[in-house]
Design brief:
- This protein has 87 residues and is α+β, with helices and mostly antiparallel strands.
- 24% of the residues lie in helices and 11% in strands.
- It has helices at 18-26, 56-67, and strands at residues 2-6, 82-86.
- It has a two-stranded antiparallel ribbon.
- The radius of gyration is 13 Å and the shape is globular.
């Protein structure tokens, strides 16, 4: 069975995906992206307050694109990168 994990050691579970983990480590507490806009899930289901989204996957992809720094170092000071593993 294939699994997905992060270079920091995080491994996906039934309750938390790699996307959930990466958003948690890269997104700032105030939800403000480098573009100066707030990027948090808005009142309309599955849309960001900036208008992006439409599905859970699109919303996750948007958050990762906005908040992931080029060096992939999270707010915890650790590098985070998706790795495929063979189990």
């Amino acid at each position: 069975m294939d699994g997905v994990r992060c270079s920091c050691g995080f491994a996906e579970t039934e309750d938390e995906t790699i996307g959930d983990h990466l958003i948690e480590v890269f997104a700032p507490d105030d939800g403000k992206g480098p573009d100066g806009k707030v990027h948090l899930e808005g009142e309309a289901s599955l849309f960001c307050m900036c208008g992006a989204g439409g599905s859970a996957e699109q919303l996750d992809d948007h958050f990762l694109a906005v908040f992931t720094p080029p060096d992939r170092v999270g707010r915890d000071g650790t590098g985070h990168q998706q790795l495929a593993i063979q189990a």
